[in-house]
Amino acid sequence: MNYLAHAYLSFHNPDILVGNMISDFVKGKKQFDYPDTVQKGIRLHRAIDTFTDQHAATKEAKQYFKPAVGAYAGAFMDVVYDHFLALDSNELSATGWKGFAEEVYLQLAAQKSILPEKFSRILPYMTTQNWLVNYRFTTGIENSFNGLARRAVYLSGSAQVFALFTEHYSALERHYRDFFPDVKKFAWSHLDTLLIQ
């Protein structure tokens, strides 16, 4: 899952949010440098990623992108899931998503002193460009795809995968609908287990 889903699946817990958002920037034993609840957020992020990768809907949806991006199909699906989550009025209204994004930015900024350096560098861009809200728009998805392609080792561009996203939009939305209630239930249960440990 990408930033919006990991933020949302932190369930308004500021320390869990920090851990959930920084997990990809924290390698190995570095996770133990953080406060206990932030460590639990890091572990929640990793459990969500494993659940997502193993879910039947994700496995099916990735097949649309594999011919174009191979092993990176999962990374592009993470962005696709954020797009449909940002449009999901069963979770929040458009206004609600805007308020939620502002809450996330404020909570992350309040804990800037403990954020990994690389994440600290992207946070101002995430905030000023309002990434969490802009996942609603296909232009935001296109920008995210471009960013993924720039960071990938062997991808020359994202135009082909964006064309596939557009072509299979309705099917991808169905896969999101099949997937998100399951990951939300899983994350809530897993977080509950982590917090009582």
Written description of the protein model:
The protein is mainly α and 197 residues long. It has one domain. The chain is 72% helix and 0% strand. The protein contains twelve helices and no strands. Helix 2 crosses helix 3, helix 3 packs antiparallel against helix 12 and helix 6 crosses helix 12. The longest helix is centred in the last third of the chain and has 27 residues. It is globular, with a radius of gyration of 16 Å.
How many distinct domains?
1
Spatial shape = globular
Give helix % range. Answer: over 70%
What's the alpha carbon Rg, rounded to whole Å? 16 Å
* Uncertain stretches of 5 or more adjacent residues: none
Category by helix and strand content: mainly alpha
How many helices? The count is: 12
What is the chain-wise order of helices and strands? HHHHHHHHHHHH
Beta strand %: under 5%
What is the total tally of β strands? Answer: 0
Question: Average pLDDT, to the nearest integer?
Answer: 94
**Sheet having the most strands:** none
State the separation between the terminal residues, measured CA to CA.
25 Å
